[in-house]
Amino acid sequence: METGLENYYIIQNNKKLRYGYTTGSCAAAAAGAAARMLLLGKEISRYRLMTPAGIPLCLEIRDAAFDGVEASCAVKKDGGDDPDATHGLLVYARVRRLDTPGIVIEGGPGVGRVTRKGLEQPVGAAAINRVPREMIAKEVRDACEDADYEKGMYVEISVPGGEETAKKTFNPRLGIEGGISILGTKGIVIPMSEDALIASIRTEMRMRKENGARYLLVTPGNYGQDFLAGLGRGIDLEVSVKCSNYVGETVDMAVNLGMEGILFAAHIGKFIKVSGGIMNTHSRCSDARAELFAAHAVRAGGSLETARALLETQTTEEAVDILLAEGLLEPVMAEVTKRVHGYLQHRCAGAIRTEAILYSSVHGWLGETPGARKMLEHFMKEERD
């Protein structure tokens, strides 16, 4: 069944990836359809919606029910070819008349509740973001105008299975409990969107800031958190943030939020690139790992033969093994961390403190920038208690 997105897609790695639509679009369409069924007394099977992106949608209405008191229906979330945890969920809207003017929007079962400061909605509110709220209100308001209805409407958004699905999202880390968030600034899901991932990192960082953090503890992913957990120093991993490959953007956001400093804990495979000024560490954007190791080895006094051996490596762990065997690991890591620190400072123009701890999956802690150990104390539970 056509939705209006049939001709919208991106090409990535020679594959066509189709667009989808957000939980916000689902909620708005369901609310608009439910309001019309309640006020006009007619079942609706399809609902037309103009998204903030300027792309019109025509969405199937499911499980419709209405009487003279209230109406409800659902729209099935379709994330397109994006790896979206909420894909396939039914987003329900239930509406009823109010005696007072205005449109009240609430969250029901499966929609999370905000429990920490720094998120878009205040503590205690349903995790329905500003743009979806505006979309829902517009569709319900239009239905009221078309039916010449001048009083208010109550709208409840619910998502069966939302509480379980939320465990696969950022929500538990952000302090959103009990369900998913109703999201989307454009109403459209662009597959593998970097903007969406960066926005989620920004949201988590802002939440840390609003809850009193002056410094950020950042890892590219789960391995960094595992490394920190293995140090056994009482580090509070609940306050850490994952930045994926977006090192430069993470530094930028920390500056914009007014943080005092940021400490990265990263595998050498990621941050050897940062030692060359590469701020997006994804393999499709850059590599040069072997070349950077070779250059740093020469700077540290290594032989041409060692540099050639490093250039032939396929993994950074191989490179670390070579440096260890040649007695060069410590001086090379001194070169690496010096340049990591310099490029991070260059990125933020000295506006905040930037430190990094680098590790190997095989050999553990490899090196750190000058202030890293001191900054690590800010994230130890006993230091803050």
From TrEMBL:
GO BP terms, alphabetized: anaerobic cobalamin biosynthetic process; methylation
EC number: 2.1.1.195
Pathway: Cofactor biosynthesis; adenosylcobalamin biosynthesis; cob(II)yrinate a,c-diamide from sirohydrochlorin (anaerobic route): step 6/10
Transmembrane region(s): 20-40
GO molecular function, one term: methyltransferase activity
Pfam families: CbiD
Enzyme category, top tier: transferase
InterPro entries given in the database record: CbiD, CbiD_sf
Record keyword Transmembrane helix present: yes
Keyword Membrane: yes
UniProt xrefs under SUPFAM superfamilies: CbiD-like
Keywords: Cobalamin biosynthesis, Membrane, Methyltransferase, S-adenosyl-L-methionine, Transferase, Transmembrane, Transmembrane helix
Catalytic reactions of this protein: Co-precorrin-5B + S-adenosyl-L-methionine = Co-precorrin-6A + S-adenosyl-L-homocysteine
NCBIfam families with a match to the protein in the record: cbiD
Similarity section: Belongs to the CbiD family.
Protein name, entry field: Cobalt-precorrin-5B C(1)-methyltransferase
